[in-house]
Amino acid sequence: MREQPEQQAPPVQRLRVRYAKRGRLRFTSHRDFSRAFERAVFRARIPMAYSSGFNPHPRISYAGAAPTGSASEAEYLELALAQVVVPAEVHALLDEALPAGLDVLEVVESPGGSLADLLEGSRWRIDLAADRAATVEAVARFLAAEEALVERMTKKGMREFDARGAVVSLVVLPATESSADDTAPRPTSLDVVLRHGTPAVRPDDVLRGLEAVAGLAPGESPLMTRLAQGPLLDSGDLSDPLATRA
Known about the structure:
The chain is α+β, with helices and mostly antiparallel strands. About 20% of the residues lie in helices and about 30% in strands. It folds into two domains: about 15-110, Alpha-Beta Plaits, CATH 3.30.70; about 120-230, 2-Layer Sandwich (Alpha-Beta Plaits). The strands form two sheets. Strands 1, 2, 3, 4, 5, 8, 9 and 10 form an eight-stranded mixed β-sheet that branches. A two-stranded antiparallel ribbon has the order 6-7. Strand 6 and strand 7 (about 155-160) form a beta hairpin. Helix 1 packs across helix 2 and helix 4 (about 130-145) crosses helix 5.
């Protein structure tokens, strides 16, 4: 009989981590990030808990990863540890071990429950090379529409879904608040809050919806940045998932 694998001890502490994807590192895929993060954990000598089985791996839970190519200030994961540590020390160790552009912003002790269940929505800023007046008109038409059907290739093939239904709020930012990529000025910026669901509606789906409903051409390489994600409030805003008990 094949020898049974060693059973690992259960974790004694869990930490929740908020990190950012900035600059060129926004093109890092989720798979590439997970590999880089596991290497960083090893270099930092963080006392990880490991899974049981014939191929033990560090117990890291990822939640709500942003699409490849988009920047983010609000990515989350959870670490399961074999020893009790000080979160601030783990923060410093991870920040030193990760490359610039993958930046740890906050590390807190988990209160328990599911981190993924807290991530009910996301706030995005979309910077695009489109005429401001045309964008304001397109947003009004989009919000007035009952639905905005778009298509996207998924793991299950090409799917059609409603981009309008996931939009909690969508506004054109005042010109003074518009942001831009360092290398490509953008004249117009959108602020959009999306409700998470299945299939997940992404900010690029909203742009396709604006084009489908109102003919708005977003121009080349719109910059999409996730500013926050967390529990959705009745007001349409988001609360901090690291300050919320699951």
